[in-house]
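Task: encode each sequence below as structure tokens.

Item 1
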Amino acid sequence: MMCTTYCFILSVSTKLSVDPTSVPLCHNSDGKPHVNDNGDSLYSNVNSTIVPLQCDCEQKKSRYNRKNVSLTTNYRECLCVLLSIIVFCTIAVVVTLWLMRSANKKECKLCTKYTMSQPLYITTTSIELLITSTSTVISTSTSISTSTTTSTSTLTSSTTSTSTFTTTSTSTSTATSTSKSTSTSTYQPDNVPWTTEANSEKLTKKVLFIVADGIPADVIENATVINMKQIQRIGAYTRAYVGGGKKTYTETATISSPGYMSLLTGTWGNKHNVYNNYVKNPNYHYKNIFRLVKELEPDKKIGIFSTWTTNRLKLVGEGLSEAGNITFDYIFDGYELDLITYPHDKKSRYIYNIDQRVTDETTECIRAHAPDLSWVYLQYTDDIGHYFGDSQQFSQSITYLDDQIGRIWKAVDYRMKYHKEDWLVIITTDHGRDPRTGQSHSGQSVRERTTWILTNSQETNDYFRDYQCGIVDILPTITRFMNITIPIESERELDGIPLIGKVSLIEPNVSLHGNQLTITWTVLHNTGNVTIWLSTSNLFKKGIIDNYKLIDIVSIDKKIVIIDIKKYPSDFYKIALEGQYNTVNKWVYRPRHQNKTSGKISTSSSVYNTTKKTLLGRILQKEPLTSSKNST
């Protein structure tokens, strides 16, 4: 604006002060000059065209060197230039005062095209005006300072009205760039996603886990699931299992609520005490993932998206003092109670509509609020499985599920692209289906126990890839991803193993022979030692911390330890093996009948008591699934 004003005044003053007839003429359009070497006209005024003086650098340069410009003209022109300087300085002072008054505004008043990331504070202002016989340069420099850096902004205007805004940093870093002591970078508007190394700040960890009800591994692996395969290409897929250790103290029914509780607490039914969908007496002393997050980081936001309220009110125990009095920040559940909007029909079409609603609410909430930890439950597949078993209808329901997961994934992908967030997405199921018809579940057949886990994580470990993972592994995976430190008393009760990052040891096994405990384990990361802890009580189920005794510290590659337990007489032992990267545990009961001569467990003592309260005999290892691990 200031440059344009000056050029206008200068042009007008020149027209008023110079006699056109006394000025040598410009070139014609054919390039021939109107004057000879002596300055005499080659053409008559009739045939030649007098070209008006243009306001450009070459014309201004030649104008001051012309011999036939009168002395009066020079005086008049100098007067006009002086007038222009006065006008220009007046404008500069006004603009400076205006900027000082507007210092608390975010918009840069020198160039409204850009928006500063922080308020402007004017400290010094210098205005320089240089007019020579060869060029006109107008330079305004304004020194500004922000709360994090001191920078100099230079606005340069040329005769073609092109302006460039740059920021020269004089400190170590700014909100938009990290550089050496002196660097220059083009300013980025606030609405542009941060993509440079300068903005590689620590990303906020977010977790979303989805439970798709009742889909065995063999079905999902042969279904048309375009979106889920897209997630697999980014991350990983593996077969998994539910139901605890078959015919051991950890055996758990392959039913929905026990499966959810195993996921939420990282323990099997012998600890969380949920064996059916009635959820009559859950043991909240085994803390669920939402409680761990809220107790350790209260500012974290949690959300739940579900058909029914049981997941929130009974399994998590929202609002219950014995469950930690936690409260969800985002709640979208209980739609099955709305009989007007979702009238119940015999073919569960209303459940499909509810799943659509749950998906809609999930995508909107993630896009707008992005809770730190969210649980999404989708039910329709299990209902169709109960109605039709292994059928085309069941396959179609999985296609519907894949579409819903795809919509949710797009919301997550949006957050990762346009916000400083790192998301862990885990998709799994709560149980398989019976091998004969596919209409029922709850037993311990291979197909009912065989499930799957799909994740977008690219940091899955050898345990995830090479061993049989369990639904209980999801909780320690989430806590590791979110950098949540589990209290030692709770960590010693976990049955799960992280699926990401380093793992020291897995597959603990303990057998009791008279007064000797034989402890073995499988090594995954051959570094460090194993610390062996022993407790003869199980007070944790009552909310009391057990008294663990340090038994031994051995090299992890030893893989087996035999312990004399004469000093610790008991009918029950809890063993915790603490490695460098994770902790595993195992329980063992002393059998009621023992061969006194040999001191070994009698064969009759290996019978499993189905009441789940008393165990007879030695503990059996987890029965591996017969299905091979393959991917979708």
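Item 2
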Amino acid sequence: MKHEQPPLTSGGAVPPPGEGQHAVPPAPAPAGGAVRRRSAGLSGKLLLLTVLFVMLSEVFVYVPSVANFRSTWLKDKLTTAGVAAAVLSETNTIAPRLQEELMRVTGAVAISLTHKGRRSLIAMSGLPEEIRYVIDMEEETPWSAIRDSVGVLFSDGSGLMRVSQPLPMGSSAGDDVQKVDIVLPVAMLRKDMLAFSGRILGLTLIISVITASLVYLALRWMFVRPLQRLSASMARFAEDPEDTARIIVPGGRDDEIGDAEKRLADMQRGLSRALHQKQRLADLGLAVSKINHDLRNLLASAQLFMERIEHVPDPTVKRLVPKILATLDRAVGYTQAVMAYGKAREEPPRRRLIRLERVVSDVAELLALAEHPGIEFESRVAEGFELEADPEQLFRVLVNLCRNAVQAMEAGADAAHVCRLTIEAALIEGECLIRVRDTGPGIPPAVRAGLFRAFQSGAKNGGTGLGLAIALEIVRAHGGRLVLEDAGPGATFCIQLPQRAAPEA
């Protein structure tokens, strides 16, 4: 759409398209802000979003619709004026009454025809005003139609527009093509476009309400209600997790909601079983602690009796009493370990910079590794290797790991078997790695799953199975990890301790 300033010529001819000054049409005013609604819960948000998206889709439909209405409106005016003008122009003169009737029917201010390159004024009424828009229907594109439609809607409706297009009955060869050119008030087009917009708006509101309601009800039935049911089931189950009657019953759906219901039911059943089992274990632990206390007193009394019997000058007694005392000592140690594990909680580590070879030396001295007749002990810790850790707790970890390694190699040792225990350390990317490696029989796959659980890993060697559990607890308190590595024969445990400072090796 083009803007043009000059009025109609005094000779009655209409200026050809393209003449005059051009101006940019007024920009569309911003649409009014949407009213915000505060809604509690998923249902209200879903309803609001549904209405907004439906209205947005209707806007995308409205804009091309109003542009098409404008183009059709202009073409109808041009066709009516062109056909009537062509018929009337066959005579040399047109009666004023016919001119007035033609102007009334078309609503035009001026009508002219172009034939063989000549423009002739057919009819004109009123005083000429400013021609603001020049439109050639042949050159109009869908995008320009949309742009000009918005410009007319948001204009003040003043001024005139000149619209032209070829007549359907005109010749297609050169100057023989007839062209109709009419001048129309902008206000008339704007009035009809506003009326059309009102009808579209009413229809849009009706469609939006119906569509939004159907979509909202469908989404609420398909998603919101099942999610509310899941949420209510979680809240009800949280009040009493051990009550199996509170476990959700899946609705039988085969979609993601149904899968979520099934998974929630499985999780609730598993949690209920776990809580029930923990309660039973707690009750069992209380009973065991009482029995263990009495058993320890009985074993202590039995030790005293055996120590007295040891002095009896009988060869059989002399031979059996040490074995019985060793068995009693082991039983007392087992009961003490059980009580200690049940009561003790490891204190937070008091980390400080220590030399690792000193700790390894103390471990070797405590376990008499250097004097062991069947095991070679090798420390590959570099002299002066430093790390940040609690020395007492790290000592306990290494003692537990080395004792387990010694017991494993002693149990499966023979004359041809090389029994070697190695401790090595390295600092990699701010993490201290300490490896305890042995050449024993290794860890069977069936044992690895519960390797670090209390009372499980050490039963086959006559131990309590608490060493690895305690070691893991200490390492985790340091923020590290204790892992079993698959590195050659035997077993290799790796202690991974993060370093806050930068220890030197």
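Check on item 2: Confidence is low (pLDDT under 50) at residues 1-40, 170-177. The domain at 352-498 is CATH 3.30.565.10 (Heat Shock Protein 90).
End of task.
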